[in-house]
Description:
CATH topology of the largest domain: Immunoglobulin-like
Helix content: under 10%
CATH architecture of the largest domain: Sandwich
Number of helices: 0
Distance between the termini: 88 Å
Order of helices and strands: EEEEEEEEEEEEEEEEEEEEEEEEEEEEEE
Radius of gyration: 39 Å
Shape: rod-shaped
Mean pLDDT: 90
Strand content: over 45%
Structural class: mainly beta
Amino acid sequence: MCVNAIVTFNANATKAGAAPIYQWKKNGLNVGTNNSTYIDNTLANNDAISCSITTTTSASASSNVIKMNVFSGVPNVPAWISGARYDLCNTTTDYVYEVSAVSNATGYNWTVPNDAFIKSGQGTSSITVNFLPSFRLGNITVNGMNACGGGGVKVANISANPSKPSAINGINQLCNNQQNVSYSIDSMALVTGYLWAVPTDATIVAGQGTNNIVVNFGIKTGNITAQAQNNCGGSIKSVLPVNFNCRLSQSFNSSNNNSFSLVSPFDKEIIFTSDQSINHAIATLSDVTGRVVYNWGNISFNANEIMKLQMDKNIPKGIYFFKINNTSFDFVAKVSHE
Length: 338
């Protein structure tokens, strides 16, 4: 019962004689009047109500004790609905949704979308749901119930489509015309494939439909997007904006066929990228006489990483040769300082 509810208790006596005496007790104390009925609207939780009867011949009997279960208000909002939120595209699967026990709740009221039905469990803290082929998007709700009414409602958004993919892994600060740049998302269960999109003059050269692609860029910036797909539709897209922070004006091949792209003219730094990783190479800048005017020493870099080699002294304007070499390759390109 709910607090302040009016409760009527009745004592049904047999063979009590013409005028028995009724004595009602609340927690062992006398209450009420000499009547077979007792009414109370101030009951608290765990109050004990009983009645004793004395007949005209002084015989007596006592009733059973009723222990009161009194609620101070409606139940709290359930903390969380556990169960699948996405990829609800399989109409032959039983999907289970449940909540932890809610204080003061004696039951639970669940609702599901029109294109789904509760197979079992209504009224309890756990239900089994089936989805119809027409289901695409909706909510599952639940609230606790007791004698005071229904408590606050917890809502779970659900979809037949896949969940949003993870953040896109890959560099987003590039040079125009940069080639063979890799991007990826985490692999996802239950999906049938992935749909990628790139800026308008970029090209996906490998991996469309998988969770890992390789892109050749042109001169336009924009967004790389990834969408997970299943037989019911596509997910919300993950988006990675890409921008150009340098201009690759020359492309070269090294002695071992590494592809290099290099910014020229340069100012206070040499900017370049390669389609392969290089370890323990020596980078130098020489004038047209072959004299080394700047030596960066030992450097290493990853494939498609934009390298910026800073110079801490002024270099006269003119034509120079930028060289990177180690034991396995040798790369030289002419650059200008204007």
